[in-house]
Amino acid sequence: MAYEIPVTQARAELAELINRVVYGGERVVVTRHGKPLVALVSAADLERLEGAAEAAEEQVISSVSSFGSTSSASGSSGRFGLTAEHHRPEDRG
Questions:
Q1: Residues 6+ apart with CB under 8 A from 13
Q2: CB distance 29 to 2 below 8 Å
Q3: If you ran DSSP here, which 8-state letter would residue 60 be given?
Q4: Residue 49 to residues 2, 17, 21, 53, 82: CA-CA distances in angstroms?
Q5: Alpha carbons 59 and 67: distance in angstroms, whole number
Q6: CB 31 within 8 A of CB 37
Q7: pLDDT digit string (tens) for 23-46?
Q8: Are the C-beta atoms of 21 and 28 separated by less than 8 Å?
Q9: Are 27 and 2 in contact (CB under 8 A)?
Q10: pLDDT tens for residues 48-75?
Q11: What's the CA dihedral at 35, 36, 37, 43 to 10 degrees?
Protein backbone atom coordinates (compact mmCIF):
# COMPACT_ATOMS: atom_id res chain seq x y z
CA MET A 1 0.00 0.00 0.00
CA ALA A 2 1.30 3.43 -0.90
CA TYR A 3 1.25 6.47 1.32
CA GLU A 4 -0.86 9.23 -0.27
CA ILE A 5 -0.19 12.92 0.21
CA PRO A 6 -1.61 16.07 -1.42
CA VAL A 7 0.79 17.93 -3.71
CA THR A 8 0.70 21.08 -1.54
CA GLN A 9 1.81 19.09 1.50
CA ALA A 10 4.37 17.11 -0.56
CA ARG A 11 6.11 20.34 -1.56
CA ALA A 12 6.66 21.22 2.08
CA GLU A 13 7.77 17.71 3.07
CA LEU A 14 9.81 16.63 0.03
CA ALA A 15 12.99 15.78 1.96
CA GLU A 16 11.02 13.66 4.45
CA LEU A 17 9.16 11.90 1.62
CA ILE A 18 12.43 11.07 -0.11
CA ASN A 19 13.75 9.56 3.12
CA ARG A 20 10.57 7.49 3.54
CA VAL A 21 11.02 6.12 0.01
CA VAL A 22 14.77 5.51 0.10
CA TYR A 23 15.26 4.34 3.67
CA GLY A 24 11.76 3.17 4.64
CA GLY A 25 11.01 1.29 1.44
CA GLU A 26 7.69 3.09 1.09
CA ARG A 27 5.98 4.21 -2.08
CA VAL A 28 4.43 7.66 -2.02
CA VAL A 29 1.58 8.77 -4.27
CA VAL A 30 1.20 12.53 -4.65
CA THR A 31 -2.39 13.57 -5.27
CA ARG A 32 -4.14 16.64 -6.63
CA HIS A 33 -7.81 17.07 -5.77
CA GLY A 34 -7.78 13.52 -4.41
CA LYS A 35 -6.60 11.96 -7.68
CA PRO A 36 -3.18 10.30 -8.10
CA LEU A 37 -0.74 12.61 -9.87
CA VAL A 38 2.73 11.08 -9.52
CA ALA A 39 4.43 8.38 -7.49
CA LEU A 40 7.74 8.47 -5.68
CA VAL A 41 9.55 5.12 -5.79
CA SER A 42 13.12 4.15 -5.07
CA ALA A 43 15.60 3.87 -7.92
CA ALA A 44 15.73 0.10 -7.30
CA ASP A 45 11.93 -0.14 -7.65
CA LEU A 46 12.09 1.90 -10.85
CA GLU A 47 14.71 -0.45 -12.33
CA ARG A 48 12.52 -3.45 -11.47
CA LEU A 49 9.46 -1.79 -13.02
CA GLU A 50 11.34 -0.89 -16.19
CA GLY A 51 12.81 -4.40 -16.43
CA ALA A 52 9.37 -5.95 -16.07
CA ALA A 53 7.95 -3.62 -18.72
CA GLU A 54 10.77 -4.48 -21.14
CA ALA A 55 10.28 -8.21 -20.52
CA ALA A 56 6.52 -7.89 -21.15
CA GLU A 57 7.19 -5.93 -24.35
CA GLU A 58 9.62 -8.58 -25.58
CA GLN A 59 7.07 -11.30 -24.81
CA VAL A 60 4.39 -9.49 -26.83
CA ILE A 61 6.77 -9.03 -29.77
CA SER A 62 7.74 -12.70 -29.58
CA SER A 63 4.08 -13.76 -29.46
CA VAL A 64 3.18 -11.60 -32.45
CA SER A 65 6.20 -12.86 -34.39
CA SER A 66 5.37 -16.49 -33.68
CA PHE A 67 1.73 -15.92 -34.64
CA GLY A 68 2.83 -14.50 -37.99
CA SER A 69 5.24 -17.36 -38.64
CA THR A 70 2.59 -20.02 -37.99
CA SER A 71 -0.02 -18.58 -40.33
CA SER A 72 -0.38 -20.27 -43.68
CA ALA A 73 1.28 -18.61 -46.66
CA SER A 74 -1.23 -20.11 -49.09
CA GLY A 75 -4.03 -17.89 -47.85
CA SER A 76 -5.97 -20.62 -46.10
CA SER A 77 -6.70 -19.99 -42.49
CA GLY A 78 -6.49 -22.48 -39.65
CA ARG A 79 -9.16 -23.11 -37.12
CA PHE A 80 -8.79 -19.67 -35.53
CA GLY A 81 -6.61 -18.07 -38.19
CA LEU A 82 -7.02 -14.63 -39.61
CA THR A 83 -6.58 -13.76 -43.24
CA ALA A 84 -6.24 -10.27 -44.64
CA GLU A 85 -5.51 -9.00 -48.11
CA HIS A 86 -4.59 -5.56 -49.25
CA HIS A 87 -5.78 -4.40 -52.66
CA ARG A 88 -4.51 -1.21 -54.23
CA PRO A 89 -7.24 0.96 -55.78
CA GLU A 90 -5.70 0.57 -59.25
CA ASP A 91 -5.97 -3.23 -58.99
CA ARG A 92 -9.75 -3.09 -58.59
CA GLY A 93 -11.61 -3.57 -61.76
A1: 5
A2: yes
A3: H
A4: 16, 20, 15, 6, 34
A5: 12
A6: yes
A7: 999 999 999 999 999 999 999 998
A8: yes
A9: yes
A10: 888 887 777 766 666 666 665 555 555 5
A11: 170
